Amino acid sequence: MECVLLGSGGMMPMPYRLLTSLAVRLNGRIYLFDAGEGAQLGLKETRIGVRGITLVAVSHLHADHCLGIPGIMMLRAQMEEPEPLTIAGPPGIERFIRETHENLAFYLNYPVVFREWAENGEGPAYEDDQVRVHWRPLEHTRFCLGYRLEELERPGKFHPQRAAALGVPKGPLWGKLQQGHSVVLDDGRTIAAEQVLGEARRGRHVAYVVDTRPCRAIYHLIEGVDIAFVEGMFLPEDGEHAERKDHLTVVDAGRIAGRAGVRRAVLVHISPRYDVEAVTRLEAAAKARFDRAEMGRDFQIYQVPLPDTD
Ligand SMILES: [Zn+2]
Ligand SMILES: [Zn+2]
Q1: CA neighbor of 115 nearest in space, from 123, 130, 125
Q2: Among all ligands shown, which has an atom nearest to the Cα of 62?
């Protein structure tokens, strides 16, 4: 799994910093979190093919998080027979996309599935055969959602000596057991995968939390994740802007990430008031709170290794 940061800025795209957008890539599929104006530039620069985009998860209906979606949809329609696309987000995301589609009358050659947050709506924002994406409302000037992507549990470690002791011949049957399937032997006995596998192993967890004041929901979303992309919009001395507009400072982000036991925190949604040089100061302030915090950099790729390889 790898996380590709397409942009790390907030409010407006700058020549030196695109708007915050995160692509999580796993086995050829891409799960995209937010797409503001100019998101296509990040996709081009990092050579992420739009064909693989399976999900676009939107935090909220502020322009810097959603204006780039129509362009990505158009680009994707240039492919031959793309898979369906799921767009998840706050109430109103479906209307925004549908009306834009209608008004601009752009060509689409694939179905779009919408999943809007509903107050009593249970269940994840999205799931497929490799990940589940959870969501939770944050606290911002507009209704805003944070996300947590969890790779599904992987089958436990295969114990060859157990398989041999049960009389399973080495070969394709071992492979099936390794993948978690039960097998039937020539003598009619059924061997369940659990008999030869260790405990199931957890998958990798990634969190995406932007545009919020400090709140409880952030802890739920980022707790113990392998990597968290968290808003770090301001320096603490500019904290009154954060306070007034419901954003996090780098110190808020560092403190929360440290308390939540995050393995690595990448701070994003950086205010356009800070130029490239100022980012060093933001990073120092964040690291003083949490030494595994760093400022996000456009086009950087963050590898997320499996938690245990045994
Ligand atoms: Zn924003
Ligand atoms: Zn916002």
Answers
A1: 125
A2: 2
